[in-house]
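Lab meeting notes turned into a lecture example. A postdoc, R.K., suggested we walk through two folding results consecutively so the class can see how the record format repeats. The first protein's sequence and structure tokens come next.
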Amino acid sequence: MKVAAFVAVGAILVAQATLAQDAPRPRCADADNECALQAMKHHAATRISNWTAALSLPVAERIGPAPLQLVEYITLDNIANGYPERPRAARLDAGLLADVKAAIADLPATIWALFGERLVGVYFVDGLGGTGYTDYVFDAHGRPVKGFIVLDAAVLAGQRANAWATWKENTPFAPGAGYRLEARIEADGNDNRRNAIQYILLHELGHVLSIGADIHPPWNLSPKEVAGEAKYPFFDLSWTIDRQAGKFRTLFDANLPQRARTVYYLGAKLSAAEMQPAYASLRNSNFPSLYASTSPGDDFAESFASYVHVVLMRRPWQVTISRDGNPVEIFRACWGEPRCAQKQQLLERLVRPSS
């Protein structure tokens, strides 16, 4: 969540240079969450009428430093959520840009073709507060119709695929003596920055693919705001809405005791000793990864990324947990297994609509 050539990428970089300043002057004080939330409503970055220049270009050319309106929007989002980072437009070096283009060009043409009508563009900042970010762009009637992707160029600059995946999968767990979790998403010869970027992009593209597709409830709605009669085929395979508590719950919560405390990136809430039982419990669900179990939106984005990576591109995906140097759990992608068969069927219909 790409094979068209970036023949005019220089044009968009030049066009955005007038907008891509280091950082906008914030509208709201650092701790003023309510001000930020209000300022985000109907913000220019989320209105399709303000993306006319980008949308006039072929989708493969919509890449470059984040324009000022987008940097401001992400800054407000960070203030609203209490994140300390204050992003600024990235100054992309030639090597990173080449890796981004190569990562996109390496994807199956059928996958990139899915995004011509949905993707506003891929933009870069430094100081995002995470690796990637995707949000809605609304039409004149307030309906989400497209999405933009924002990546942190500074974070991506030093990443290799397996090291990045290992870092990500460790974030829910506090360090513990004798415990080790290692993720592998590339063979040794392909363990490079380009393929780290590719997997991160696939996840964000999964979010974009869900826009307007009734795959799961819109991520800008709270559970209580989701219409009771709404049907979301992918969501319904794994999730339910606890309207009294105002929470999304999985159909497998009774068998996934660690899920409620699984939080990525924002501070570990699980102990190292819970690595093995968390992944063992995951086998009792239809989630392809632990991250997929954290929210309906990330369930689909993770499933899409994993499916394209493993099934269509025939790449590895594995988490190995060791205790005192000895493997105690090896968790692999579930595609081809009965537990994920229904999700795989839905994904196949989405990415191969003509079949």
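The second example is placed directly after the first for contrast:
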Amino acid sequence: MTRTDKSIRRTIPALVLAGIVTACGGSAPEDVESETVVPVKTETAQLGTIRTVIHATGVVAPAPAADLLVVAPQAARVAEMPKAEGDRVRRGDMLVRFEIPTLTADAAKQRAEVGRADARIVNAKAAQARARDLFERGVAARKELEDADRELADALADLAGAQATLEAAETIAARAIVRATFDGIVARRTHNPGDLVEATTSDAVLRVIDPSRLEVSASVPIGDVSRVTIGSPARLAGGEPGPVLTVASRPAAVEPGTAAVPIRLTIRSSTTLPVGAPVEVEIEAEEHKGVVLVPTVAIVREGEETAVFVVAGNKAQRRTVTLGVADDHRTEVKTGVKAGETIIIDGQAGLPDGATVTTDAGKADDGGGAASPKTP
């Protein structure tokens, strides 16, 4: 055997051994292992104060004492209506005069009854005087004097009754003329002079409102009612400056067929909102002070569990948290996160626990994302 043959025989086992080592999971000294680095955005959890907001829908309406709906006292004809829709009115101005013949006739009848009662009293007094004179002269018996006294008493009672009935009739007859009870504006006019109208709110003749006394009637979900307190501030949704609102009343009943309760909000400042305009309102509710706050976008929800990702070194740690109240941008964290910890607010979706992260998309934190040699 030549020297070349011996050399070849030594080389083949070495190659076979190298192949076996490679197949068993070994790596050459020059092989490297790399780790994916996830770019994220972060903010710091802070101690602060948060006030919750209740969102509700509502409609602009006049305050209870600032809305006058003119309805006929009974079926009648409109005799006079000097104010048009949009006209300003002053307290005491005549709004509508109804023509109601039955009321006029009834008042006249009662005045006649008062006249008859007056005449009866005159006769009774004269009879009483005669009976007393005869009794004193011994001509008439005491019973005749007592009967005269009783007749006068009955006549006086009849007069009082007739006068009360006349007063009531005149009061009803006076309802034929309706006057403004406050300064305001004619919001709606549905009839004209000569029209026949019924004594129902569905056939109202005129509506007058006071635009300086408006409120919002908001429908608040039943679950949020306990968080509403009288005097709490509120505002129109949308972020733009608007009228100042204040909660004026607590609910007394649920709106039929809904899961909401009406809440009255007084408009404390001037507004150009028309009556009947639909609005979205935000009512301030309870306030929590000195609590840990994180941006709401940082919250990860998986089923019934909530979590946030905290950056520790260059690793993302998934923390299960217990949440408190929230506003439009921040959420209270009761457990799981401390003030001062760095919270991931963007990039946490689908992020595995323990992943390497960087807050700079082009550079890994502390070199954690760089490729490094790995020995076999």
